[in-house]
Amino acid sequence: MEQIDYGENRYEGTWQDKKLPIWARQCELEATMKAAGTARFKDLIKKARSKKAESNTKHGQTLLKTLIDPMAQAIRDYVDGQQPGFQKKPEVAAKILARLDYEVTALVTGKYVLDCISMQQTLNKASIRIGEALEMECRLEDFENQQRRYFRRLHKALENKRNYRHKRKVYNAKIKHFKIETETVWDKSRKLHVGKKCLELLRLSTNLVDFPLKTMGRNKTIYYVQATSKTTKKIEEFNELKEILFPEYLPMLTKPQDWKFPQKGGYLTPHARLKLVKKDSEGYMEELCNRVDEMPLVYESVNAIQRTPWKINAKVLDVVVSCWEKNNELGDLPPRNLDKFEPQKPHDIATNDIARKKYSIAYRKFCDWKANQESKIIQVVRIIRIAKVFQPEKYLYFPHQPHSSS
User: Does residue 354 share a domain with residue 277?
Assistant: First the structure.
């Protein structure tokens, strides 16, 4: 049976010293929760950067939202300034950008830049990648214009898929299938020209990036895309603030504080603050605060639920751990080896259209299923880790938050 490291040491701390009073242990546990949350937050950023997906982080999403409007306006001004006039010929980039949605172009450019903003990326390589993405946008525009109903159904089916390469492959296959008339494939020079213009407009409109010239070897200099010092500082300050706001919530050793107001209850210390309901709307929270006296039954019920003590059943935990480590998929446990379920490529995939289509459908379903199972695996490991850590405790309590109906 395979022995698995569940990472119990991430919760190690003085809270485990049973010589301390129980309230002191709980306060120490909440400090450990804060530290574990900070570590998890940093780990998510590290993983996103390694996968070139930094735009999906919290700071990436924030920066992406702030750059779209100013860059879209910069594109609009550039295109308007390139209108044909006496002795003036519009640039190729202006003609192409004029036919695309300015906000979509800003989004495509910003997302790519943010995905590699913490990495060394040459200006030319970044420009070509952005050019390729915008070429695809032009092809999709032609697809929508010529097969509007089918395009919209396909777009809806693919909009939640995260694998961009897969989506591009599907779109290109359908463009070929429907014999969509598109402009000639862009050569490297055109991709470079369009992408570089987009990067320049991003730099001028947002001051998000700069293009420093770096010396490589004795006689070689290359321009790179790099975050400005202002952007780097903004990212660091944002993450320093956010990492303390996302503790890893764990069971409590003592009874939670009773809820008396929507923003006071549950955990004991500021290290792990909760709200009565999972709602970010300030107006909604303010209304709850003003109507506390109207909901005595709600508060009494929630407090009664969270005063209920729990205990880890050691025998059941042993069975779950054993089943998980033997990979026998008892009950709803997901399989640990997902790749063995990947469909096999037909030997004649290059020549057999029917076999290729069946494989494509099966592989797409497998990718969706795998993503779902990976989330379950992460959840199972976390549950086992928490159960192992808290199994020796006499009682456990769980701060309760009712779900908002609005």
Answer: yes
